Amino acid sequence: MDGGDMPPRRFFCRKGEEIMSAKLIKGAEVAKEIRAELKEEVQRIKEKYGVEPGLVTILVGENPASQSYVRAKQKAAHDLGFYSVQDNQPADISEEALLALIDKYNKDPKIDGILIQLPLPKHINENKVLYAIDPGKDVDAFHPFNVGKLMIGQPDYLPCTPAGIQELLIRSGTETSGAEVVVVGRSNIVGKPIAVMMMQKGPGANATVTVCHTRTKDVQFHTKRADILIVAAGVTEYVKGDWIKPGAVVIDVGVNEVGRTADGKRILKGDVAFDEAKEVASAITPVPGGVGPMTITMLMKNTVRACKVHNNIKE
Ligand SMILES: NC(=O)C1=CN([C@@H]2O[C@H](COP(=O)(O)OP(=O)(O)OC[C@H]3O[C@@H](n4cnc5c(N)ncnc54)[C@H](OP(=O)(O)O)[C@@H]3O)[C@@H](O)[C@H]2O)C=CC1
Ligand SMILES: Nc1nc(=O)c2c([nH]1)NC[C@@H]1CN(c3ccc(C(=O)N[C@@H](CCC(=O)O)C(=O)O)cc3)C=[N+]21
C-alpha cells in the first residue's frame, strides 16, 4: 500500500483535538538549565574547599568535526569555571607517546577528568588507549571497568550521550517503565550503553528493549512497534515518518554534516527525517539542539562528580 491517493493520516488526542505536530524536546534548553546548576555547584565547591574540577581534552590530529566538538567541550568547561586543558597532538603521534601522555594526566592532581576524542588515527589501538585511562578519571565512562559497572547496574559514571538521552526522557515526562524501546545502532558509545541503561531497574528505565543494526532483517518492523525510538545509526534521515508508531517519542542521536553555509558553518541533519517524523511522533528531539548539547553537559556533570570523589567532598 503506497497510500498515494489517500488523504494524510490524522491523529487525535484524548480530548479529540487533532495532533498537528510533535512536542519538541529541546535538549539545548535543558542543557542550559543543568549547566546553570552545575555552575553554582562549582562556585560553591571552590569557595568551600578551594578546589576546582579539572578536565583535559586530548585531540589527536586535525579532523574538523573533532576539532569543533572539542572546542565546544572546552568552552563549556571554561564557562562553568573549571580548570581546563586542551592538549592537541599531531596525527602521527606514536601509541607509546600517547600512552605516556595519559599516564601524565593520570598522575596530575589538578586533573579530575580525561577525555580522548574519538576516533583515533588507525595506527593507534583504541582499546589500549581506553584501558590506560585511570577509571576514576574516565569521565566518558569508556573504560572496561566502568562499562562493566554499568552492566551490573552500579555505575560510578554514566556514558555521556546515553545519560543525556535518559535525562531528556525523564525531564520530558516520558513514561519509560514497561515501554517498548527500540534502539537503532549498537556502537559502544551510544547504542549498546543506552540499551543497557533502558533495561535496568530504576527511574527513566525499566523498559523492554530491542536493538537493531545492519544485520537486522526488518528494521521497520521493529521501529513501528516502539513507544520510544532511539536512533544512532549515523545515516542521514534514515528513519522515515511511516516507520514511526503514532504518538511515539523519538530521540534522534545522529549528527550528520550535510554541507556548509556560505560563511563556513556546519549544516547538520539527524538520523530521522524530521519533517515527516514530527507529524507522527508525540515528541521528538531536533538536530541540532537535541541530544548533542546534553552529551557535553553530562561530561561536565561527570567531571564535577570526579572532582568531588577525588577531594573526598560528600555533599
Ligand atoms: N549527539 C551526540 O552527542 C552524539 C552523536 N553521535 C552521532 O550518532 C550517530 C551514531 O554514532 P555512533 O554510534 O558513534 O556510530 P557508529 O558508526 O559507531 O555505529 C552506528 C551503528 O548503527 C548501525 N547502523 C548503521 N547503518 C544502519 C542501517 N542502515 N540499519 C540499521 N543499523 C545501522 C551500525 O550497525 P553495525 O554494528 O551492524 O555496523 C552500528 O551499530 C552518528 O551520526 C554520530 O555522529 C555520536 C555520538 C554522540
Ligand atoms: N571520547 C569521545 N567522547 C564523546 O562524547 C565523543 C567522541 N569521543 N567522539 C565523537 C562523538 C560525537 N559527540 C558529540 C558531542 C556533541 C555534539 C553537539 O553538541 N552537537 C550540537 C551541534 C554542534 C555543531 O554545531 O557542530 C547539536 O547537536 O546541537 C555532537 C556530537 C561526542 N562524541
TrEMBL record:
The keyword Secreted does not apply. GO terms for cellular component: cytosol. Pfam families: THF_DHG_CYH, THF_DHG_CYH_C. Pathway: One-carbon metabolism; tetrahydrofolate interconversion. One of its GO terms (biological process) is tetrahydrofolate interconversion. It catalyses: (6R)-5,10-methylene-5,6,7,8-tetrahydrofolate + NADP(+) = (6R)-5,10-methenyltetrahydrofolate + NADPH; (6R)-5,10-methenyltetrahydrofolate + H2O = (6R)-10-formyltetrahydrofolate + H(+). CDD domains: NAD_bind_m-THF_DH_Cyclohyd (cd01080). Its EC number is 1.5.1.5, 3.5.4.9. GO terms for molecular function: methenyltetrahydrofolate cyclohydrolase activity; methylenetetrahydrofolate dehydrogenase (NADP+) activity. NADP(+) binds at G185, R186, S187, V255. Residues 25-140 form the Tetrahydrofolate dehydrogenase/cyclohydrolase catalytic domain. Residues 159-310 form the Tetrahydrofolate dehydrogenase/cyclohydrolase NAD(P)-binding domain. The keyword RNA-binding does not apply. Keywords: Amino-acid biosynthesis, Histidine biosynthesis, Hydrolase, Methionine biosynthesis, Multifunctional enzyme, NADP, One-carbon metabolism, Oxidoreductase, Purine biosynthesis. Belongs to the tetrahydrofolate dehydrogenase/cyclohydrolase family. Homodimer. Catalyzes the oxidation of 5,10-methylenetetrahydrofolate to 5,10-methenyltetrahydrofolate and then the hydrolysis of 5,10-methenyltetrahydrofolate to 10-formyltetrahydrofolate. This is Bifunctional protein FolD. The gene is folD.
